[in-house]
Amino acid sequence: MAPWPLYAEQHLNAFELVADMGVAVPLKVDRKRDNFVEAAELERAVRCLMGEEGRKAREKAAEMRDVCRKAVEKGGSSDAALQRLSEALHDGAVRPTI
């Protein structure tokens, strides 16, 4: 993945994908030119994705996919958290504000 942020929080999301998660390669965006990306920069990013850096990013993404799937399975962390929330709402321990 080569994130191309255009506005709002997309710049932060792109940074997290590259620096924190390691599932993307950076793409230099010229904010002064309406988020323009030079052809050479796009080529560089695509070549990175096709090479070793891209292989590592794909491996990391596959690892994260597996962790996320386990979390939403029956008994996983997300499933358990949603169950606890449902029980708390049902028991009146948490009152939703609308």
Q: How is this structure best described in words?
A:
The protein has 98 residues and is mainly alpha-helical. Helix content is 60%, strand content 0%. The protein contains 4 helices and no strands. Helix 2 crosses helix 3 (52-72). This is UDP-glycosyltransferase 71C4. Keywords: Transferase. It comes from Triticum urartu (Red wild einkorn). One of its GO terms (molecular function) is UDP-glucosyltransferase activity.
Quickly describe the structure.
The chain is mainly α. Helix content is 60%, strand content 0%.
Give the tally of β-strands.
0
Largest sheet: none
Look at the helices and sheets and give the structural class. Answer: mainly alpha
Low-pLDDT sequence parts:
none
N- to C-terminal separation? Answer: 38 Å
Number of domains: 1
Can you write the helix and strand succession as a string? HHHH
Question: How large is the count of helical segments?
Answer: 4
State Rg: 19 Å
The overall pLDDT, averaged over residues, is: 93
The gross shape turns out to be: elongated
In which range does the helix fraction lie?
Answer: 55-70%
User: What share of the residues does DSSP label as strand, in percent?
Assistant: under 5%
GO molecular function: UDP-glucosyltransferase activity
Organism: Triticum urartu (Red wild einkorn)
InterPro entries: UDP-glycosyltransf_plant
Keywords: Transferase
